[in-house]
Amino acid sequence: MSFTRREFIKTAGLGTVGLTFPILLPIDGKQTKRPNILFIMSDDHAEQAISCYSKALINTPNIDRIANEGIMFKNSFVTNSICGPSRATMLTGKYSHKNGLRDNRDAFNGEQMTFTKLLQKAGYKTYMIGKWHLVTNPTGFDDWQVLIDQGEYYNPIFIENGVNKKYTGYTTDIITDKALEILEKRDTETPFCMLVHHKAPHRNWMPNSKHLDAYDNKDLPLPETLFDDYKNRQAAKEADMRIDDMYLGHDLKLKEGDFEKETGTGGNKEFAPNADDSWQKTYESLTEQQKKLWDAHYDRISKKFKEDNLQGKDLTEWKYQRYIKDYLSCILSVDENVGRLLDYLDKHNLADDTIVIYTSDQGFYLGEHGWYDKRFMYEESLGMPLVVRYPKEIRPNQVSEEMVLNLDFAPTFLDFAGVNAPQEMQGESFRPILKGKTPNDWRTSMYYHYYEYPHGWHDVKRHYGIRTERYKLIHFYNDIDTWELYDLEKDPNELNNLYTDPAYKDVLNELKTELKKLQEKYGDTNPLEK
Ligand code: CA
């Protein structure tokens, strides 16, 4: 049969739900049996920093609980590894070149179809709380309360259905307070879809006061590739996202006076001269009490840094420890707030009827290749943590190796709500995988395309590529024209570019053919166009 499952269903005009239930029931707004959807997402949360994925860095008992009571995906990937574009893809079920949001400078066209609009139409109440970051105001929500742009870690301003309101406190807690408040006063006869999207642990990693000293007496293991030499990888070499180049104040929280001048590019040479002012402004926005706790922690670190006068590799290792400790401490707040939501579902007897998802808009480098940030198609930022719990359909303790994408979220949510995924959505519902029944023709390769260059942060060249179960092929373009090929089985750290290795000639040809097929399938046949 030459049709894929999805094409067959589309031809039959039934949408993805047609697979298991060829006849759709009419949607009645009052129907109560459809599951609630609680879609919790954080920003830049790497799999390496979730204990069900790796025990090396942190203990996250609440996120782990979702995995233990449901399913954990080990090969969940993002199609364009950067904040805004990943979010736009999740909402629309479409690649960046189709939904129009290629990079963080684009504004989301809120007129277009999203899964929340379709759920609303089908009788769901839809809520959006937290980080939105799509420039235009949210559409398709009954109630939306979002941070301005990236938002602040402390004392945030929310835009609440168009009106600005300032709060005092820690943003990760406040986002959850808001979610609980809405759950408490909602109409219990109507299913809900709630997006709880945290700002944390996005740069510049400001932990809650109560977690400031969590890693005081513990150094974290160094990643294997902290001192990568970028051999045979020109784009990696030219990227400006090394921990070595972080801002000493804004990123690493040293006090003015304890270092001579800001030495880092911080990933943006144009912004670098303003980094001190920007950090000072953030610090000044803390309340007196918050400043007191902040200073009690960082003054000591800063003073010691001045005394120690570290150089070379010692300095890089110090920066890594400084960075990772703040990053992880922010996640401690995310995890405890996931726990607050799970507790609420338990207490109100909602756990059985609610699909709970925890994910991040992409992965992140925690010192691998000497980096922080994301963007590259390499494993750490291509991967996206994904755990899902829904006791009615997902057995506990499942681990899936299937390839699922952020592109699939919209059709999956619609599938659960009994709503046809429109033709224009490019993802696939992974509901069958959640139930433990992977379709025979499920994808074995995925397509990726990143655009934010030459403007923007970190100087990561534009690139597109394909990842199969074993291999990855990437083409960097624009002011560069280089290809990279990796054998992930032999080289999971992606240090050995095999593109010109004759032993991989056949593999390379197959990958190029498959890449072209995917570009045709998704309508990205002119990937080099500006
Ligand atoms: Ca992000």
Small-molecule binders: calcium ion
Radius of gyration based on Cα positions: 23 Å
Number of helices: 14
Oligomer: single chain
In whole angstroms, the N-to-C terminal distance is: 37 Å
- What is the β-strand count? 14
The unreliable regions are 1-32
Describe this structure as you would to a colleague:
The protein has 530 residues and is an alpha/beta fold. Among the domains are: 209-319, no CATH class; 448-524, Arylsulfatase, C-terminal domain (2-Layer Sandwich). It has helices spanning 5-11, 61-68, 83-92, 96-99, 115-121, 171-185, 234-238, 275-284, 288-308, 312-347, 379-382, 409-417, 431-434, 505-522, and strands at 36-42, 71-77, 125-130, 143-147, 157-160, 163-166, 192-197, 354-360, 386-389, 398-405, 445-450, 462-468, 471-477, 482-487. The longest helix is centred in the middle third of the chain and has 36 residues, at 312-347. The protein starts with a helix and ends in an 8-residue tail after the last helix. Mean pLDDT is 93; it is low at 1-32. The structure holds calcium ion. The site of calcium ion has 5 residues, from loops. Calcium ion binds at residues 43-44, 83, 361-362.
